[in-house]
Fold this protein.
Amino acid sequence: MELFYFQYFAEGIGHLGPEESNHCIRVLRHREGDLIDVIDGEGTLFHCKILQADPKDTVVELLSSEENWGARPYRLTMAVCPTKNNDRFEWFVEKATEVGVDRIVPVIGDRSERKVYKTERAERIALSAAKQSLKAQIPDIDEPETVRSFIGTCNAACKLIAYCFEDGSQPRISIREAIRGESDVAILIGPEGDFSPEEVRLAIEKGFRPVHLGHSRLRTETAALTAVEAVYFEFI
Amino acid sequence: MELFYFQYFAEGIGHLGPEESNHCIRVLRHREGDLIDVIDGEGTLFHCKILQADPKDTVVELLSSEENWGARPYRLTMAVCPTKNNDRFEWFVEKATEVGVDRIVPVIGDRSERKVYKTERAERIALSAAKQSLKAQIPDIDEPETVRSFIGTCNAACKLIAYCFEDGSQPRISIREAIRGESDVAILIGPEGDFSPEEVRLAIEKGFRPVHLGHSRLRTETAALTAVEAVYFEFI
C-alpha cells in the first residue's frame, strides 16, 4: 500500500503538489484513471481516482473517505530539547512518527547547547515517516519555545518530566507506572546537560510528575523514543 | 562518569590500547596517578590507577572490581536482518546497546536484499554506546548467518518471531504478552521484504512463537528496537 499526501482539496477534487505528483507519475508511473490513496495529514484517508496525471500537478477525484484512519487510542505530545547533533533529533522525529506521536515540540532548556531550531526538515521527515508507516495523521511539529514556556502552557491530562539527576526532594516513579490508564499524555525530555533544578521545580509546581525511564543512561533522543514506546506499549 | 575499555589485562595490570589511550591521555588529559574506571566488556568494572600515561599504550593498575556492574535481570538476543541502508542497522545497534541487549545476530533471510554484512563497524558502535550508556558489558555482535541456521541453533527459553503478513494459520500474540515473566529471550526480526512463509513455518516448528509489535507498520530497524524496548519495559 502506498500513500500520497494532498497539497489541497476542495469540492471533491484534490491536488497532490509538485513533489508528490512527481513521485506518483514519474517514479510510480501512475496513469489517468488509476486509483490511489491520499491522506490529508489530519487523520483522514481518501480513496481517489487520477483525473490528470501531470508530474507537476496531479489532480484527483475524491471517491470516498475514511476518517480517523489508523487512529491511536491516545494523544501524545513530546516536548524534547533538540540535540547538538541535528541528525539525532531528526532520527527521533522519524521513529516517533512511525511508532506514534501527535505533536512534537522542540523546547530550549536553560542548559540547551542548541538554542535555535528550524522545523522545515523535521516536517518533511514526519510527512515521509507517516506515509511510510501508513498513518493518515502527520504529527504537528511546533515552532521551538522555551522549556519554561511549554511548562506554563501544556494542558495535557497527564504531564511528565523525565530527568537524570536525583535531588532527593521528589522521588521519581517509573514512566510505566505514571502513564497507566492515561490517554492524553505530554512528556518533557531535557537536553544533553539535563534540565536545570529550577526548570524541574517549576514543572512540578505546574503539575508535571517526575519520572524515570529505567536503569539505562540514555541519550536525549533515545530517552525521547523510549518514552514514546512506553506509551505505545500501554495500548497494545 | 567516563568509562574506558581494556585491550587486555593480566596480574593486576591493564593496557588500554591505542585508541582508548589517546582518548584518555590526549583528549581527556589524564595523568599518571589519576583514577579511572575501565570495563572489560564482559560485565566487570575495574577501578584503576594510571601507571603510565602514554597516549599510545596507557598502563593502569587494577585497584578493585565490581562484577555484573549495572547488569540487567534478563538476557536478550536480537537476530535482525541487516537493512539495505547500513546506517539504519548501525543505528539499531547503537540504540539497542543503550537500552540493553546481550547479543546481536545479523541474519540473512530468503528475501534479504543485503546478503553480506561486515561486523567491524557495528562492534565499534556497540563499544562506544556501551561506554556512553555506562554498561560494563558490550553486546556480542555475531558473524552473519542465515535465518534458517539461526532458527536451528537458537536455544533461548523464549523464542519469538515478529513478521507482518497474516497467513491465518497461526494467530500472532502481542510481544508484551509473549515476554511476560520471561528472562531469556531471543527475537527474530525480518528484512524489508519480510520473512518467507517457509522461514516462518520452520521457526514455528522449532518452537518460535509468532508475535506482533502493535498497530504501527514499522521499518525493520524500528521494529527491532521496539522489540528491545518491550523487553526492557518488562523489567522497569
